[in-house]
Write a structure and sequence with these properties.
The structure holds two protein chains of two kinds.
Chain A (H helix, E strand, L loop, with lengths): L1 H20 L25 E9 L15 H10 L1 E10 L3 H11 L5 E4 L1 H9 L7 H7 L2 H7 L5 H5 L1 E2 L2 E2 L2 E2 L10 E5 H6 L8 H13 L11 E4 L13 H5 L8 E3 L5 E3 L4 H15 L12 H9 L3 E6 L8 H7 L5 E4 L11 E3 L6 E4 L7 H16 L30 H13 L9 H14 L7 H7 L4 H11 L2 E3 L8 H22 L5 H26 L1
Parallel strand pairs in A: 1-2, 8-11, 13-15
Antiparallel strand pairs in A: 3-14, 4-5, 6-14, 7-11, 7-12, 9-10
Helix pairs in contact in A: 2-14, 15-16, 16-17, 19-20
Chain B lengths: L2 H27 L10 E2 L5 H4 L1 E2 L3 H8 L3 H32 L3 H12 L6 H11 L6 H8 L14 H26 L3 H9 L4 H25 L7 H7 L5 H4 L2 H11 L3 H30 L5
Helix pairs in contact in B: 3-14, 4-8, 4-10, 5-8, 6-11, 8-10, 10-14, 13-14
Classes of the chains: A alpha/beta, B mainly alpha.
């Protein structure tokens, strides 16, 4: 029997062996390189470029079209002579895993977008090529202008040893800033004045918790929305509240001597936490907030338990428009977070770039990456008028800007939408407005004349005293505090970062819950357990 | 029996086991090559053989982490208690169910206690936060009516481990109960008849016939569960813990998750995994040896 069994094993191994040991194969380059000069120069014989992309359910196409056959892919072929083929596409949640696998197995496409950590991995492994000279030569003036609107930070983040290794996907940094959101229907019901100072804000918080703002006769509301994701920039986080005390948790700021220091361990942070601690003691922060994450807080807000929270400019779209289904009279307003003293508060922004377009090391046409980005900018923002096929079809829910391999965004498009609305309100003509501005005006009007209540979110965001208006004022008075560290994660950050983050969350939540020693203990531990070496590395980076 | 004949008869059986063997080789033995990562400063792009060999540095690094003692202690306490409670409760429940006369009630109870086994911790995590809430939770309402002060089960370090063990037992004891019930049905009915003739009451029958009949299965389950001595249950802890109870709820697996998946420190994360596997191997071997010695139970 042994022989027969042996045969069986051998046979099965011969079958399975190739599967076990197969590895990704590399594309081969042949033939002479074609030349296509200038930002929009076309390759005479179309070249085939492989890529990968993260897609999801919101990627919709017109009938008969798909990712490789749509208005953008046709522009790539017709105008640039670039035939883009996707090796694979994957859902956003699996992107990192799939990309890490591709990096680990060395089966990389020609041109592909990656995150900051992956960019660092690729550079370390020497799998991608520098793009600095190519960017300078091929980037269109409009692309350069848009990408430099917020200074050189996006390029610094993609620069390793003086070489630009990826094209950054610029986004508006200031759009991440937080606001104080207050339920106006509650504030009016209790006859409270608008929060101009921290004391007035605290008065509102206490009144919302204790004075039955929803008038249902039950003590079922809390004052201030805080979740155990204390830092999330989106909703129910505390960064904005700390900013009122001139504390800037999780980001790196300059101290009086010009050295970079970690915001969370500064004494101002303790002042902010002491106020939160008192609110917790007085029961205006949910006694159970320590077990509730942001999702739970959103549920509670939708159920009408919260009227004051700190969050992003899109809060009308989430969670308040959902809350409005339960409370049709709900109105919210954004406020500047009032300063705790007479020095105006600055809103902190992380100022980071999430995506970079990179080119595989031996790829013959690195300039294609720049050209593909040029053409996106050209057709998305510059053409006048914008071509029909690239415009959003909101009736069918089709958004062509999701189709390109890579996008990049001007810094001020959200502000521009608001400015467009304001101009029309002031009786100016909408001539020369871009399509996004016109779209916003349409949506806001359809809310105001009562034809489409679903546009309430749009209206609450862009109206004359909405969050965008506040951000515009911040821009005018330079009211932001941006993260002064924007390099790749340092060595100690990589090895000790998550331990320190976990400790910070744990200790600060404990402090809010009444453990008065937790802050000082955290500061001391943080320094010893790696914080001091991180500070050193960050300053080394700043001085280089 | 003629050896040849015996072999010929057994060949189909060997063939039937073959797919399982192949799968184990591919998915369990193949990946063991990756153990090498535990001794390297592993960089995925450089591969197993290109990364730098650092010997035991990863293990030293882990031991130098500030929380490591806390984490080990939490893991062992939670896992051990789960094993012990998870052995006793199902045996008791199976014996009691066996005494129930009506088949219908028996089935109904069996199904309802088995049901939570199919819910994932992601879902249960959300539900438990609600029903264990000190202010509005259903459990504390009941306790309140008995005059007990509200207990913050998920946010109090004194109660958290207890909550973890109780909820895990509630979720999983139905599964083990079914196995024991099956063992009970395989007991020879003649033995009970003989015992009745000898004048044994229900209690005596249980003690002298049912329990000894279940012995082998109980020992097998114990041996198998001892391998999990460092498995405190990632799914459960990850979905139930929160910053307030890190002190009592942080376990090896959540630690590995942070190291390996968040920080991409594959070397140290693999080192912890290897350490866990070695401890499990020792425990399984010892308990298997004991089972053989004490109860005459062996697989091979």
């Amino acid at each position: 029997m042994d022989r027969k069994l042996f045969l069986f094993f051998t046979a099965s191994f011969m079958l399975l062996g190739p599967m076990l040991f197969a590895s990704g194969q590399q594309g081969t380059e042949e033939s002479e390189k074609q030349v296509a000069p200038g930002p929009f120069g076309k390759y005479d014989t179309p070249i085939t470029v492989t890529a990968v992309k993260s897609v999801d359910d919101t990627h919709k196409y017109y009938q008969g079209e798909d990712l490789e056959n749509n208005a953008w892919s046709r522009a790539y072929v017709d105008e640039l002579g670039i035939n883009l083929k996707y090796d694979w596409t994957v859902n956003g949640t699996q992107w990192d895993q799939k990309m890490n696998l591709a990096i680990a197995s060395g089966s990389l496409p020609d041109i592909f977008p990656v995150g900051a950590k992956q960019l660092a991995m690729l550079v370390e492994a020497e799998l991608i090529q520098p793009l600095g000279a190519i960017y300078d030569e091929y980037a269109s003036d409009d692309l350069k202008e848009i990408q430099l609107q917020q200074g050189t930070i996006p390029f610094d983040a993609a620069t390793f040893n003086g070489q630009l290794m990826g094209i950054p996907e610029t986004n508006s940094f200031i759009d991440a800033a937080n606001f104080l959101w207050i339920r106006e229907d509650w504030r009016n019901a209790l006859n409270l004045s608008k929060p101009e100072t921290m004391d007035e804000l605290i008065k509102i918080i206490y009144a919302f918790a204790n004075d039955d703002p929803d008038g249902n006769g039950k003590d079922d509301t809390y004052g201030f929305a805080v979740s155990n994701n204390i830092y999330n920039y989106g909703y129910s986080s505390i960064e904005g509240f700390c900013n009122a005390f001139h504390a800037y948790p999780t980001i790196w700021v300059k101290d009086s001597s010009g050295k970079l220091v970690y915001g969370s361990i500064q004494p101002e942070m303790k002042e902010a936490l002491i106020v939160l601690q008192k609110m917790f003691k007085d029961g205006v922060i949910d006694p159970e907030f320590g077990v509730k994450d942001r999702g739970k807080l959103v549920e509670d807000t939708v159920a009408g338990k919260y009227g004051v929270g700190i969050g992003a400019q899109w809060n009308p779209f989430w969670p308040y428009i959902q809350a409005r289904e339960n409370f049709p009279n709900l109105q919210v307003a954004a406020y500047e977070i009032p300063s705790a003293d007479n020095k105006p508060s600055l809103a902190q922004i992380p100022s980071s770039i999430g995506k970079f377009l990179v080119v595989r090391k031996d790829f013959l046409y690195p300039e294609a990456a720049v050209k593909l980005t040029n053409i996106f900018v050209q057709h998305q923002f510059i053409d006048n008028p914008l071509r029909e096929e690239f415009l959003e079809d909101s009736e069918k829910g089709i958004a062509p800007h999701k189709w390109p391999i890579f996008t990049t965004w001007p810094a001020f498009r959200v502000l521009d939408r608001h400015k467009g609305w304001m101009a029309v309100q002031n009786g100016e003509s909408s001539e020369g407005f871009n399509s996004e501005q016109l779209d916003t005006i349409d949506r806001m009007n359809s809310y105001l004349d009562g034809t489409d209540d679903a546009q309430w979110g749009e209206w609450s965001t862009y109206k004359s005293d909405g969050p965008v208006a506040i951000n515009l004022k911040r821009v005018e008075r330079d009211g932001f505090m941006s993260n002064k560290f924007f390099g790749a994660p340092t060595e100690t950050m990589v090895t000790k970062g998550s331990t320190l983050e976990k400790m910070e969350e744990e200790m600060f939540i404990r402090f809010i819950m009444g453990d008065t020693e937790a802050f000082d203990k955290f500061v001391a531990d943080w320094k010893v357990l790696g914080g001091d070496s991180i500070t050193e590395e960050v300053n080394l980076w700043a001085n280089s | 029996m003629n050896l040849n004949l015996k072999l010929r008869r057994e060949i189909p059986l060997h063939i039937m086991i073959l797919p399982a063997l192949v799968l184990i080789i591919i998915f369990n033995y193949g990946p063991m090559v990756g153990i090498i990562i535990a001794f390297e400063k592993y960089i995925p792009t450089k591969g197993f053989f290109g990364s730098k060999w650092v010997g035991l540095d990863n293990f030293r690094y882990i031991l130098s982490m500030p929380d490591i003692q806390q984490i080990l202690k939490n893991t062992i306490v939670i896992a051990m208690t789960k094993i012990v409670v998870g052995l006793f409760i199902p045996v008791i429940v199976a014996l009691s169910l066996n005494e129930l006369g009506s088949d219908r009630t028996k089935r109904a109870i069996q199904t309802s206690i088995y049901l939570p086994h199919f819910l994932s911790w992601v879902i249960l995590g959300g539900i438990l936060v609600d029903i264990l809430s000190p202010s509005s939770g259903f459990v504390n309402k009941i306790l309140g009516s008995l005059g007990v002060e509200p207990i913050f089960f998920l946010g109090d370090n004194d109660w958290f481990q207890f909550t973890v063990i109780i909820t895990n037992t509630w979720k999983e004891f139905g599964y083990a109960t079914i196995i024991y019930l099956a063992a009970i049905t395989s007991v020879d009915p003649n033995l009970y008849e003989a015992a009745i003739v000898d004048g044994a009451n229900r209690w005596r029958q249980t003690w002298h016939i049912t329990l000894p009949g279940m012995k082998t299965i109980i020992i097998l389950m114990t041996v198998l569960s001892l391998g999990a001595v460092l498995n405190a249950g990632f799914d459960q802890l990850f979905n139930l813990y929160n910053p307030i109870v890190y002190e009592t709820g942080d376990i090896i697996d959540t630690f590995v998750y942070r190291l390996g998946l968040i920080d991409a420190q594959f070397g140290p994360a693999t080192a912890v995994g290897l350490f866990k596997s070695l401890v499990s191997l020792v425990f399984i071997s010892v308990s298997y040896f004991l089972a053989d010695k004490l109860a005459g139970y062996s697989i091979f």
